[in-house]
């Protein structure tokens, strides 16, 4: 059995990833990488379109996936910020409650689906468009349509 202590890499200065002594880098033969710098940790898979995770003090946390990205928890998933939460998608953003058809989707229009839609947290109404008058923009449900947009008051 051989033991090696205090081994100094002799070809590190010729590699762009290992030449900077402030950074720590670990890479595998199939392309997976972990890079640790004073302000960030970056992890990248070794596939052609790799999954990657970046934790950077200046940028924040960035998680990229060429396929689905699933968040699963046995309890709550909480997103908390004093600013805003932004969701961006090429074609649709959809939120549905498991086991129901209740939820909302955003495409070119906003669709709200459910047995009761609670407005401002103080009441509820069923979305019944049969009794709606688009010329006056009124009905018993307090729903208004202005310039092809649905507004729930």
TrEMBL record:
Domain of life of the organism encoding this protein: Bacteria
Protein name: Uncharacterized protein
Organism listed in the record: Clostridium saccharobutylicum
